[in-house]
Specification:
It contains eight helices and 16 strands. The chain is globular and about 65 Å long. A seven-stranded mixed beta sheet has the order 12-13-14-11-10-15-16. A four-stranded mixed beta sheet has the order 2-5-6-7, covered by helices on one side. The protein folds into two domains: 115 residues, no CATH class; 174 residues, 3-Layer(aba) Sandwich (Rossmann fold). The chain is α/β, with parallel strands linked by helices and 350 residues long. It binds zinc ion (2 copies). The site of one zinc ion (ZN) has 8 residues, from loops.
C-alpha cells in the first residue's frame, strides 16, 4: 500500500517546521548522530564538581568542530553555566552539576557523552527565571529551557482525574523532543511535550519494553486487541501495533497526552502502515477529560486504532471486547485502584 510521503508536520509547541523529524530520517543515522567526527577535538574532560572559576582559569575550547560543527555536551553546559553565573541565578562557586538536567532532542541510549549540533538540547533547571532562560537559548545547541517545579521525584502530568496537574514551566524555546524506543520487534520514535509529559530516564523505559517483549514472545500481542489504558504519549500502544496487534485502543485523561499520542500516530504512520482520522479539534478538549471521548482513529491493512480522552474508569462501557489491557500509572499511584473487577486476568501492570 502506498501511504504517500509524510507531509511536513509543524511543531505543536513552537509551530516550527524543523522540530518534528520523521522516524525514517532519525533512524537512518541515529548511531552516528551524536558521535565525534575525525576532526572533533578530544573529550574536554571538564569535571562536573569542580568550581566553574577553576574551569575558566584553566580554560576550555568552546569553538564548534571545523569538520562537523558539533560541540561536546560538557562545553555546551559550561557555556550555559557561564551565562547563569553572569545573570546571578547560580553562585560564582557553582559547578557543571548545578546547571540542571540536559535532555538530548532525540533520546537514544548512548555509551558516550554526546556531541551536539544546534537545537539538540533541552535543559531542565531549578531556580531559573525567564530572562536567564532567554539568554540560555542563545547558546546554539540549546533548543528550550524548562523550569522544574516541585521535587525532582514528583512526576509531570496527572496522577488521577481529581488531582491538580503537575507541570513544569517552559520558559523559552521549545519543549518538544523524542525518544527512540527500541525492542526486539522494532523501533519507533515517540515525541513528548517535555514540560507536561512524564520524563523517562534511561532505565524506566527499557524495563517496560521487556514486559512488552515477554508478552510478544508469549503470543499475547500478535493479532490481539490491546488497550493502552494510561497511554501518555502512546508509547506502549504504538509498540503493540508494531508487534502485530490487530486493534489498539489508547486512552488518557490528560489532554497533552492525547495530543502527543496523535502526533506519534501521525509521525509513525509510514512505518506502521495506516492513515489517521481526527474527529475533533483537540484544542477544544478540557485539560483533564472525564467521560471518554472518541478523539481519533487510524486504519490500515491490518490494524485499527482508536484514541479516547477521558477517565479510564469510564472507558469500560464504550470500548469493544479486548484481549489485554496495559496499565502504566505513575510510580506513586496504586494501579489496583483502576483495575475493573471482571478483567483481572487480562490486565498487565507495566
Ligand atoms: Zn518546536
Ligand atoms: Zn567534528
Amino acid at each position: 500500500m502506498d501511504m504517500g510521503q509524510l507531509a511536513m508536520v509543524s511543531c505543536p509547541s513552537c509551530g516550527g517546521l524543523e522540530c518534528i523529524e520523521t522516524p525514517e530520517a532519525i533512524l537512518d543515522n541515529i548511531y552516528s548522530r551524536y558521535m565525534a567526527c575525525e576532526n572533533c577535538l578530544p573529550d574536554p574532560q571538564l569535571q562536573k564538581y569542580l568550581h566553574f572559576s577553576k574551569i575558566k582559569q584553566e580554560g576550555y575550547n568552546n569553538n564548534p568542530c571545523v569538520g562537523c560543527g558539533k560541540r561536546h555536551l560538557d562545553v555546551v553546559m559550561a557555556d550555559a553555566l557561564s551565562i547563569m553565573i553572569e545573570y546571578g541565578c547560580r553562585g560564582k562557586d557553582s559547578c557543571l552539576f548545578d546547571v540542571g538536567t540536559p535532555l538530548i532532542s532525540v533520546g537514544y541510549p548512548l555509551a558516550f557523552p554526546p556531541r551536539l549540533r544546534s537545537n539538540e538540547l533541552i535543559l531542565i533547571a531549578d531556580n531559573i527565571s525567564r530572562p536567564v532562560a532567554e539568554q540560555l537559548i542563545r547558546v546554539p545547541e540549546i533548543k528550550g529551557v524548562i523550569k522544574r517545579v516541585g521535587a525532582p521525584s514528583q512526576c509531570v502530568g496527572i496522577q488521577d482525574t481529581d488531582c491538580k496537574p503537575h507541570t513544569y514551566e517552559l520558559l523559552s524555546g521549545c519543549d518538544i523532543r523524542c525518544d527512540v524506543v527500541t525492542s526486539s520487534f522494532g523501533e519507533l520514535c515517540i515525541y513528548k511535550s517535555q514540560s507536561k509529559i512524564h520524563i523517562e530516564f534511561g532505565r524506566a523505559s527499557p524495563s517496560k519494553m521487556q514486559v512488552l517483549e515477554r508478552l510478544y514472545v508469549q503470543g499475547h500481542l500478535m493479532q490481539r486487541v490491546v488497550v493502552d489504558g494510561f497511554c501518555g504519549p502512546g508509547t506502549l500502544g504504538l509498540m503493540c501495533a508494531l508487534a502485530g496487534a490487530k486493534r489498539v485502543i489508547f486512552n488518557d485523561a490528560w489532554k497533552t497526552a492525547i495530543e502527543n499520542t496523535l502526533l506519534n500516530i501521525e509521525i509513525n504512520k509510514n512505518i506502521l502502515g495506516f492513515e489517521l482520522t481526527t474527529y475533533m479539534d483537540t484544542s477544544t478538549l478540557p485539560d483533564i477529560g472525564e467521560n471518554a471521548i472518541h478523539v481519533a482513529s487510524a486504519e490500515g491493512n491490518s490494524i485499527v486504532m482508536d484514541v479516547f480522552h477521558g477517565d479510564f474508569r469510564k472507558l469500560k462501557e464504550i470500548i469493544p471486547d479486548f484481549d489485554i489491557c496495559l496499565i502504566d500509572t505513575f510510580p506513586s499511584v496504586d494501579p489496583a485502584a483502576f483495575v475493573w473487577n471482571d478483567i483481572n486476568g487480562r490486565i498487565v501492570i507495566i
